[in-house]
Amino acid sequence: MSKIHVTTMVNGDPVEFLCEPEDTLLDCLRDRLGLTGAKEGCGTGDCGACSVTVDGRLVCSCLILGAEAEGSAVGTIEGIADGDKLHSLQQKFLEHAALQCGICTPGLIVAAKSLLERNPDPSETEVRYWLAGNLCRCTGYDKIVRAVMDSAAEMRGA
Length: 158
What we know:
- By secondary structure, this protein is of the alpha+beta class.
- It has 5 helices and 5 strands.
- The chain has 2 domains: 4-79, Beta-grasp domain (Ubiquitin-like (UB roll)); 88-156, [2Fe-2S]-binding domain (DNA polymerase, domain 1, Orthogonal Bundle).
- It has helices spanning 25-32, 88-95, 105-118, 124-130, 142-156; strands spanning 4-10, 13-19, 51-54, 57-60, 73-75.
- It has a 5-stranded mixed beta sheet, sandwiched between helices.
- A hairpin with a 2-residue loop joins strand 3 (51-54) and strand 4 (57-60).
């Protein structure tokens, strides 16, 4: 089989890569583009460690083929900070010690950013519901939820 040429936008930058028809978007991001922030935790879409956005929609990149990114806008953890300035979510994860081993952290931050773009004033229940697809074995979630709630308040100027 021949490789597929994909032209897309990743974190606002135009990119091109070649992939095998069976390569996942996660494989393409990590192996073709060197964007290793998204992690493969399960490979079945159950853990959320590989969460990215495709055309503004939160997805597990292990469940999408790289070729399906053709013409789309992909957002990864690498595109969240503004140069050296951390995004509010990243800063609040640090301040609230909402990370430990770091495997789930990129996916959680991408998912939380996706939530806050849709709902800048979520309730704690809404945050917990939105992040339910992201598994964390280390933190117990309370610090993560507090970090997201604090970031939401900061971003609203509350």
